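dude i think i finally got it to work??
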Amino acid sequence: MSKNLIILDRDGVINHDSDDYIKNEDEWIPIQGSIEAIALLSQAGFIVCVATNQSGLGRGLFDEFALARMHELLCTLVEEEGGRVDAIFYCPHKPDENCDCRKPKPGLLNQIEEQFSHTVQGSWFIGDTEKDIDAALAKNCKPILVLTGKGKQTSESMDAQKLSGISVFDNLLSAVHFITSEHNTD
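look at this
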């Protein structure tokens, strides 16, 4: 049996988001329970991938080294909880660059498939924006909306019919408890 993949957005799902961008490791502050949640996924046998738009790079607000330090902090905290982040995929482009990797386009998910030789179809994708939901739906993932970050605003502004088919949870930890309980019954 192949391992199950799970895809997580970063800002607003794992760590607190900011309209001024998260520019360094001091500004990268985990949301309560998110590190534990990732460790639980890893311990349950999931391949944990992060897929994140990071246009602050393209805007010159931070550089690759600052981003690497933020991701090193994330990985270290998860490892301290007994888990691991298997890979982090990010789009460095600004919205007007029309790249294939900026969510809602599925380029980051295509990269995940290539790296792991594993389809993302049917995988859980947890995000806090409609862009996350649209990227998930484009690749036939199972989207989950969390109400942290921009999630509450997204749930209020999203088309009701579209939202009706999507699981919504207060935060990453509550979503992970649901996923791992479902995973254990498969």
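The longest helix spans residues 64-80.
im so relieved honestly
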